[in-house]
Amino acid sequence: MTTINIEHTSRWFGNVVAVNDVTMTVGPGVTGLLGPNGAGKSTLINMMAGFLAPSTGTVTLDGEQIWRNESVYRQIGIVPERESMYDFLTGLDFVVANAELHGLGAKAARAALATVEMEYAQDRKIATYSKGMRQRVKMASALVHDPSVLLLDEPFNGMDPRQRMQLMDLLRRMGATGRTVLFSSHILEEVEQLASHIEVIVAGRHAASGDFRKIRRLMTDRPHRYLVRSSDDRALAAALIADPSTAGIEVDIAEGALRIQAVDFGRFTELLPRVAREHSIRLLAVSPSDESLESVFSYLVAA
Amino acid sequence: MYNPTVARLTYRALLGRRRAAILFVLPALLIVIAAAVRGFNGVDDQVASDVLGGFALATMVPLIGVIAGTGAIGPEIDDGSIVYLLSKPVKRSTIIFTKLIVAIAVTMAFSAIPTFIAGYILNGNGQQIAIAYTVAALVASIAYSALFLLLGTVSRHAVVIGLVYALVWETLFGSLVAGARTLSVQQWSLALAQKIGDGTTITSDVGLPLAVVLLVGVSVVATWYAGQKLRTLTLAGEE
């Protein structure tokens, strides 16, 4: 049972606040750190990995401070986001070197390479590897000492669907055996498929925490905006505003379209086609106008 | 203090890069020059001393020191692969010390050995000139490695700064401004060479006791500080 505790931790670079007063606990199982690009996920992971000092607050592993404490690496395995490795080595040489630095030997290295199914390419130079292969060798180097905590920064970036599934399987298995696995991602679906617990970070702040159903609901329950074109905009507007799922409608004359704000996502998606059919109005276009991930996240922050 | 795995990785990184070509080119050049001088000029102690002092010790040793010292750690910090060393239960001072040993070994191998060969070609070690400059190169290798290794941990422009120091400070200022010579690894190591040689063909501006104190002091302090820098090295994310 290994737990990472982050307490009232902030980190700034000059004038820029990358992480702003975050408090969270990462325990056994798979945790997804979700947030848009630039939200501070990497900064947070770097602090958990002991590569960055918190400006204020504490980051501890089972009560022990992580920053400037090399002994924590007996328990932590790290899969960095950056691609650069010792490209002039073969995969096997690289993992063996990582094992030796933990005081282990080639046996542990071979076992780790087998875990990530990279034995077939272990004698090739890393320089010749594809992105997915690099990712797996990085995994092997992080797993070589059988750590109880695994930190992965954007591990699925650049992976093809098959590799993604394999890695998800592996992380799931690690989580199931009681290890503390934390990975970051900016893709909700990825996190949803893998993590039993989700922490959402937006603009350096801890925006939400919980299981994926709770997060999913938070995300779908927010007000949605749609741009709708139809054969009779005003008649459609009149019919829609009568229903409580709609909070506001604007007739955009210049655009020749309706701007609709819906408050009950589920009900509105069912209401719109029904109303159109009942009034014999043809829907020409229905497009969500704020579906970008950033807007979803910024809603979460405000919530 | 010394970690063989860190050493192996450092050797392979140092000698596997394209930059390493300079490590072979400069000594080869020195030996070619020595052979040419001997061929055209015959044996002349003063000329031998001028070639070894002017090219080997003033230019080649610091340049090789820059390549080996900064190359032992700089590229790993630049591209972030140092993460794989830092995320291990290995003391940061062990990492620095090991890299220093590797940088010293490489600098010595590529500067002191060719200096000795060139000295032998030039005048067959007459007046102990070959030995004297070889010892100077060995000693300078230690100080340069420590200095440039530190530079590699504090600046992303370590190679440029190192080259400026090696070429402008040691070579240009050292020959123009007297005061600059007191703060010159080259002069410190020359003080040793002067002691070994006959004392007339090789001269240093710095007395031997001061030279030894400065050599040891600079090497120790630079290494200690590099270890401190590595302990608090922050790997900024890409955000």
Automatic annotation (TrEMBL), chain A:
One of its GO terms (molecular function) is ATP hydrolysis activity. InterPro entries: AAA+_ATPase, ABC_transporter-like_ATP-bd, ABC_transporter-like_CS, P-loop_NTPase. Residues 4-228 form the ABC transporter domain. Belongs to the ABC transporter superfamily. It comes from Streptomyces scopuliridis RB72. It comes from the Bacteria. Signal peptide: none annotated. Keywords: ATP-binding, Nucleotide-binding, Transport. The keyword ATP-binding applies. PANTHER family: ABC TRANSPORTER RELATED, ABC TRANSPORTER, ATP-BINDING PROTEIN. PROSITE patterns: ABC_TRANSPORTER_1 (PS00211), ABC_TRANSPORTER_2 (PS50893). This is ABC transporter.
TrEMBL record, chain B:
It holds the Pfam family ABC2_membrane_2. One of its GO terms (molecular function) is ABC-type transporter activity. Keywords: Membrane, Transmembrane, Transmembrane helix. This is Membrane protein. The chain crosses the membrane at residues 20-40, 52-74, 95-122, 128-151, 158-180, 206-226. One of its GO terms (cellular component) is plasma membrane.
